[in-house]
UniProtKB/TrEMBL annotation:
Domain Fe2OG dioxygenase residues, every copy: 44-145
Protein name: Fe2OG dioxygenase domain-containing protein
Gene Ontology MF annotations: metal ion binding
Domain of life: Eukaryota
Classification via Gene3D superfamilies: B-lactam Antibiotic, Isopenicillin N Synthase, Chain
Record-linked SUPFAM superfamilies: Clavaminate synthase-like (SSF51197)
Pfam families named in the record: 2OG-FeII_Oxy
Keywords: Iron, Metal-binding
PROSITE patterns cross-referenced by the UniProt entry: FE2OG_OXY
Length: 194
């Protein structure tokens, strides 16, 4: 059989190109240097893949597939099951289903990028619900910045009228606080808001 390592490596190198394309497009929309976000990623920055498997569940009213969170990195590229939904996004306190669509990648803006763009584009709070009938698979590739990167809004987005909305923090300290907040169903990024 084909080597899984090779397949995953190929997938990672192609999604990396998508990451950079999306980061450049966001910078362009914000009218800052096109490479600003891409330049925040040193070659020590991590990217890791997680395969999520959600078995059918007899009590979807009681059990979540994945508890509410926002992704902690820069950008997540999600490859979802073609025909089983479950991912939901919160807006104004309500949960909305994310539709499934074959051959589609979902790009999720994550917390570090929310800080770097000073909250203009937000990192959505999301969760996965279970269902009785079908199991579900997803593949998430999380792209992050290097641990020593200072998380702060791009200087080009700040002026007297638009002050920073987040306290500065080293990426490694941010990552260290993520899990405890996830466990409590809270968002660590909320504690950095000014
Ligand atoms: O399974 C999904 O659709 C979402 C997975 C997710 O949010 C995550 O792995 O962070
Ligand atoms: Fe997530």
């Amino acid at each position: 059989p084909e080597s899984f390592r090779d397949v995953l490596q190929e997938y990672a190198s192609r999604t990396k190109k998508i990451r950079d394309l999306v980061l450049r497009s966001i910078a362009e929309l914000l009218e800052i240097d096109e490479d600003y976000f891409v330049n925040q990623i040193s070659n020590k920055a991590s990217g890791f893949a997680r395969f999520n498997y959600y078995p059918p569940c007899p009590r979807p009213d009681l059990v979540l597939g994945l508890r509410p969170h926002s992704d902690g990195g820069l950008l997540t590229i999600l490859f979802n099951d073609d025909n089983v939904g479950g991912l939901q996004i919160q807006r104004d306190g309500r949960w909305y289903n994310v539709p499934t669509k074959p051959h589609t990648l979902l790009i999720n803006l994550a917390d570090c990028l929310e800080i770097m763009n000073n909250g203009i584009f937000r990192s959505p709070f999301h969760r996965v619900v279970t269902n009785v009938e079908k199991d579900r698979l997803s593949l998430a590739v999380f792209y992050a910045v290097d641990a020593e990167t200072m998380l702060e809004p791009a200087p080009g987005l700040l002026d007297d009228k638009r002050p920073s909305r987040y306290r500065k923090m080293l990426a490694k300290d941010f990552v260290a606080g993520l899990f405890e907040h996830f466990r409590q169903g809270k968002r660590f990024i909320d504690t950095l808001k000014i």
